[in-house]
Design a protein that fits this description.
By secondary structure, the protein is of the alpha/beta class. Helix content is 37%, strand content 13%. The protein is built from 11 helices and 12 strands. The strands form 3 sheets. Strands 2-8-7-6-5-3-4 form a 7-stranded mixed sheet, sandwiched between helices. Strands 9-10-12 form a 3-stranded antiparallel sheet. A two-stranded parallel sheet has the order 1-11. A hairpin with a 6-residue loop joins strand 9 and strand 10. The longest helix is centred in the C-terminal third of the chain and has 24 residues. It is globular. The model has no long low-confidence stretch (mean pLDDT 97). Bound molecules: 4'-deoxy-4'-aminopyridoxal-5'-phosphate. The site of 4'-deoxy-4'-aminopyridoxal-5'-phosphate has 12 residues, from helix 4.
């Protein structure tokens, strides 16, 4: 802290991202990246951007990417917003779409960036407890609110809600925005983008960091009613008119266009997840049903912090959250079959 800090900055409690170690020999199962590379078509599109055109500013509207997303989901480009990672898209949504004076609602066990944005934008919030099986109970959200946000599948639990539960939430909250954060939707959930034409209070965010294996590129998006998208554009244009660079726009658009690579790699991750769940259950772990590219598991006799530390000694990094209700769980990203085997071998030792 220094005397030059504003009183506001002194109160900020920033998000702490998962560790990104330099040592590549570690088996890195801690930040839910995709073990398979991005689409070769995306790589080629990005390489094609590296040249004289970098002299020029990118398209401030990212039209090429918006069109690719619109084509993929059967919506209009005016229903799509793109930004520098879904974290940035979420930041704009917190800034521009959640009301003040009534609390924003989100689960007690969820993505820990949400309370950070509440701190940044002065939004009050209330957390709603997950049920005994760590699932979101939508009826518990029937209370005055300035908005609702949750990941689907939820993070770090991996549990997914069906579209009928989400519709129930949208119908009961017509005066506030319901934001469904679909960072992990492609690994087993049904996207609520199918509902955006019917519910003007629905905003869905997604990322290219997980199922499209482009975490290093930082691209995220939102889909919703054009009025919600316009609010995000206003915030964005008051902050940075060029959130995405030329390389990111080209690479992300091509990643959406390459459906084959996307489907194939998602299927591989899903098949590996099911194999890891079966093997860990056989080792005595309780594993929550996961629709994501990670699992959330605890062992009735083994302390989670100790387990994480001993895995680390064997060169395997997983995520352990020292948080209420979940401090005995480990969140483990699904890796390649070889990485998963290394994990299972270490756990059986
Ligand atoms: N939402 C959830 C639930 C996440 O777990 C993550 C990844 N940490 C994000 C959003 C942000 O992803 P990104 O900024 O890489 O798009």
């Amino acid at each position: 802290m220094s005397k030059f800090w504003s009183p506001f900055v002194k109160t900020l409690v920033p998000y702490v991202p998962g560790e990104q170690p330099k040592l590549s020999k570690l088996v890195k199962l801690n930040t839910n990246e995709n073990p398979y590379g991005p689409s070769p078509r995306a790589i080629a599109a990005m390489q094609a951007e590296i040249g004289d055109s970098l002299r020029l500013y990118p398209d401030p509207n990212g039209e090429r990417l918006k069109q690719a997303v619109a084509d993929y989901y059967g919506v209009q480009p005016a229903q799509v917003f793109v930004g520098n990672g879904s974290d940035e898209v979420l930041a704009h949504a917190f800034h521009g779409l959640f009301q003040h004076g009534k609390p924003l609602l989100f689960p007690d066990v969820t993505y820990s960036f949400y309370p950070v944005y509440c701190g940044l934008y002065g939004i009050e919030y209330e957390t709603i407890a997950l049920d005994q099986s760590f699932q979101i109970e939508v009826a518990d959200y029937d209370r005055p609110n300035g908005g609702i946000i949750f990941p689907n599948p939820n993070a770090p639990t991996g549990r997914v809600l069906g579209l009928s539960a989400i519709e129930r939430l949208l119908q009961a909250n017509t005066d506030s925005v319901v934001l469904v954060d679909e960072a992990y939707i492609d690994f087993g959930g049904e996207s609520a983008i199918a509902l955006v034409d019917r519910y003007p209070n629905l905003l869905v965010t997604q990322t290219l960091s997980k199922s499209r294996s482009l975490a290093g590129l930082r691209v995220g998006l939102a889909v919703g009613h054009p009025d919600l998208i316009e609010a995000l554009e206003r915030i964005k244009n008051s902050f940075n008119s060029y959130p995405l660079d030329r390389i990111a726009i080209a690479g992300a658009a091509a990643a959406f266009e390459d459906r084959e690579h996307f489907q194939q790699t998602c299927q591989q991750v899903i098949a590996s997840r099911e194999a890891v769940v079966a093997a860990m259950t056989a080792l005595g772990f309780e594993v929550l049903p996961s629709a994501a590219n990670f699992i959330f598991a605890r062992h009735p006799q083994q302390d989670a912090a100790t387990l994480a530390a001993s895995l680390r000694e064997e060169g395997i990094i997983v995520r352990h959250f020292k948080l209420p209700r979940i401090d005995q769980f480990l969140r483990i990203t699904i890796g390649t079959p070889e990485q998963n085997q290394a994990l299972l071998d270490a756990l059986s030792r």
